[in-house]
Write a structure and sequence with these properties.
The structure is a single chain. α4 (64-78) crosses α15 (684-703). The chain is globular and about 70 Å long. The strands form eight sheets. Strands 30-31-33-32-34-35-36-37 form an eight-stranded mixed beta sheet, with helices on both faces. By secondary structure, it is α+β, with helices and mostly antiparallel strands. The longest helix has 20 residues, at 684-703.
């Protein structure tokens, strides 16, 4: 459920849904002259988009550097010597792969023995390019959920054009074919979990009145093989007023223990949990769990259910990992015990389960760590795993069939390494594959500093720059952050950014500002709702610290961020226009007065606050980028980009922000791609194009006309 916690985010279509709660109509909402741009697919709005694209694209694509940026980005994205990340399923290694020959991708498999070879022999399961051509739709891979423990039957999730809405189709790994007359669920924002080979628990749009205001399903139904969706039996119902939705998930372990948990997301960050059993009636029986809202089941080992939590739970501190016996979970009488309790400078990043071990990854002052826990008669025995310093550590794949796990290790200038560990006898990871260097990191240095924010808080940040770059404020520098939803930004191999920017003498900065999860839930909670200004102060403080260290200067600093990070960029554009010379605002939230009525906005009230609350409305009016552009203000020329297919944040924010800049006669660039969803990468060519356009913008603003050099 950690994945649900991190990835779900979406809400209302422009103008609202029937049955959605009414929002207070402030003057800023009712007098908005650009509400017509919220008609996402309307002819008038799309005509405006076409005209804006026609103005922006020549400016960027006619720059001599654009072609080189695009070629380099595409070569890296489509290279065939990348690591094929593994997924252990059905006694095989499965992988989803995209390259120049397969821009939408292949779902494929090989044997475990063959995977260890430099060039495994892959067998194709689904060719998405061929499927798209045959069906006349641009299918985007969204993963597969397989029936445990055999793992032969899978529900494959496909999205048209990259939207969050998906369709499900049943696939047989043994035959390599979609199952004839198998489970097939049409497009919806939905989730499904296997109960047995003939039964699913499904959350989806069942018809009128079954979606929340944020467009997520709140009704869970039992669907049997051969039934139509209108024959499914309801087992649980949340409420249309819930901020997110209601979903079921199945926990299993290697001993055959099984538990089905239904989670009702009252807010984006948590809600109620129930244990469901298929007895008592056709709809089964549910029992509510006495757990805090932000506590989530993460897996099960040896009949013990593992939880991660962002709330205190009994004597368990927020941010810890806890466990309870399955029997206690089923009875509802739970006394949680601690598996792992982080220090104030640590934060849990991932909880994975193997055959009879728990593998925990966490960060210590934004540096990766890993520990394996073995069950004992009374608790757990921890064994730290030695990992390289100054790297991010993640679990790439585990399975209940064995204790071997794949782990990934990466750093800003260190190509990603895939390794294995034997969780039953933990030792230093054994390297299996290493990504070839994608840029020349010779002479690149990585440093970590702290900036002091307005309230005295120390905010860590990383600087990646050429060792020979003079500390005289002249190095063109790109700086990014996220600052929301308890998501951590960690050292990650820079790849194409290294090739397109660092190799040309530029520097890169990652700021670990509040709102994220770098130091656990307290770091996130410090910047929620009306406390959010500290997030924006942290980011500005990092910029000022860079200037004090002479790493760069305002004239040479460009910033970028997407989604919530796009909101960050919009606020910084307004509040500190003097601190940067370039601002790239990606798939952003920008109209914080109407955000609850655009795309998936209503699901994020627990992060941002609501206009229905007077204090929160006052704060949103104060920081909303769209509402605070000043006519006649002195701003850097921003580059704003979004995608038409984004059904999470929606392109409406970006459109309206650009239109307001145009009204005020302020400079800007705006581009809207017509595909790609919120991530903007429906295929590898699209992702490379978006990166090349943005890098060209930064080159123009921070380096100057083509022919200049970054480190001038």
């Amino acid at each position: 459920m950690r994945e649900l916690k991190m990835l779900l985010a979406a809400t209302i279509l422009a103008g609202g849904l029937a049955g959605a709660p009414a929002l207070a109509q402030t003057a800023a909402m009712t007098n908005d002259p650009y509400i017509w741009l919220e008609d996402k697919d309307g002819a008038k709005a799309l005509s405006w988009v076409e005209a804006e694209n026609a103005r922006t694209l020549p400016r960027l694509q006619n720059d001599p550097r654009y072609a080189a940026f695009y070629a380099e980005a595409l070569a890296i994205a489509s290279a065939k010597d990348r690591i094929p990340m593994p997924n252990q399923q059905f006694g095989r290694i499965l992988n989803f792969w995209r390259d120049a020959d397969h821009p939408q991708g292949l779902w494929r498999w090989t044997t475990e023995a063959d995977y260890a070879k430099p060039a495994p022999a892959w067998k194709t399961l689904i060719d998405l390019d061929a499927l798209s051509k045959a069906e006349g739709k641009k299918w985007v891979w969204k993963g597969a959920t397989c029936l445990q423990p055999e793992e032969r039957l899978c529900l494959v999730a496909l999205s048209e054009g990259g939207e969050d809405a998906i369709s499900y189709r049943e696939f047989d790994l043994a035959t390599g074919q979609f199952v004839a007359n198998g489970f097939a669920l049409s497009t919806s924002k939905q989730g499904a979990t296997w109960i047995d080979k003939d039964t699913l628990l499904v959350s989806r749009d069942w018809g009128a009145g079954t979606l929340t205001a944020s467009s997520y399903p709140f009704v869970v139904k039992l669907l049997k093989r051969g039934q139509q969706v209108d024959q499914a039996v309801e087992v649980f119902r949340g409420s249309p007023q819930d901020q997110l939705g209601t979903y079921a998930t199945t926990l299993i372990d290697a001993k055959g223990n099984r538990a089905v948990v239904i989670e009702r997301r009252l807010t984006f960050f948590g809600g109620e949990k129930f244990v469901w059993t298929p007895t008592g009636s056709p709809a089964g029986t549910t029992r509510k769990l006495d757990v805090p809202a932000r506590t989530f089941p993460a897996g099960m080992v040896d009949g013990r259910v593992i939880f991660d939590t962002s709330d205190p739970w009994g004597n368990i501190a927020a941010g810890s990992v806890a466990w309870v016996p399955l029997a206690e979970l089923e009875s509802g009488q739970m006394t949680p015990c601690v598996l792992f309790a982080p220090t104030p400078r640590q934060a849990v990043q991932g909880v994975s389960t193997a055959k009879d071990r728990v593998i925990l990854t966490y960060i210590d002052n934004v540096r990766g760590r890993m520990t394996v826990f073995a069950p004992t008669a009374t608790g757990w025995a921890p064994t730290p795993v030695a990992v390289p310093e100054n790297m991010s550590v993640g679990v790439a794949s585990t399975t209940d069939r064995e204790n071997r796990a794949f782990v990934s290790l990466t750093g800003f200038a260190t190509p990603t390494t895939l390794a294995t560990i034997d969780a039953a006898a933990p030792a230093a990871p054994k390297v299996v594959k290493t990504l070839p260097a994608q840029f020349d990191a010779t002479g690149v240095t990585v440093e970590q500093f702290d900036a002091t924010s307005t309230d005295g808080t120390k905010v860590p940040y990383f600087v990646v720059r050429p060792k020979g770059a003079k500390l005289d404020g002249t190095t063109p520098t790109l700086m990014t952050a996220y600052g929301g939803f308890e998501l951590s930004r960690l050292p990650t191999y820079l790849g194409s950014t290294g090739k397109l920017w660092l190799e040309r003498g530029g520097a890169y900065v990652l700021a670990n500002i509040r709102g994220g999860g770098e130091f656990g839930p307290a770091w996130h909670d410090a910047g929620r709702k009306t406390k959010r200004q500290v997030i924006y102060d942290d980011f500005a403080a990092v910029a000022k610290d860079l200037f004090a260290r002479r790493v760069t200067s305002a004239k040479k600093l460009g910033i970028y961020g997407g989604s919530n990070g796009g909101l960050l960029m919009g606020v910084e554009f307004n509040q500190h226009p003097d601190l940067w010379n370039a601002v790239a605002i990606q798939v952003p939230l920008l109209d914080m007065i109407r955000y609850e009525k655009i795309a998936a906005g209503a699901s994020w009230v627990d992060e941002y606050g609501s206009v229905d609350n007077p204090a929160e409305r006052a704060f949103l009016e104060k920081i909303s980028p769209y509402a605070n552009i000043k006519k006649g203000g002195a701003y850097p020329e921003p580059y704003i980009w979004t995608t038409t297919k984004d059904d999470r944040v929606g392109p409406q924010h970006a459109r309206k922000f650009a239109a307001r800049l145009k009204e005020y006669g302020l400079p800007y660039l705006f581009y809207e791609d017509t595909a790609g969803g919120h991530s903007g990468d429906a295929d590898i060519a699209q992702g490379a194009r978006l990166q090349a356009l943005q890098m060209t913008y930064f080159a123009q603003k921070l380096i100057g006309p083509a022919g200049g050099t970054a480190a001038r």
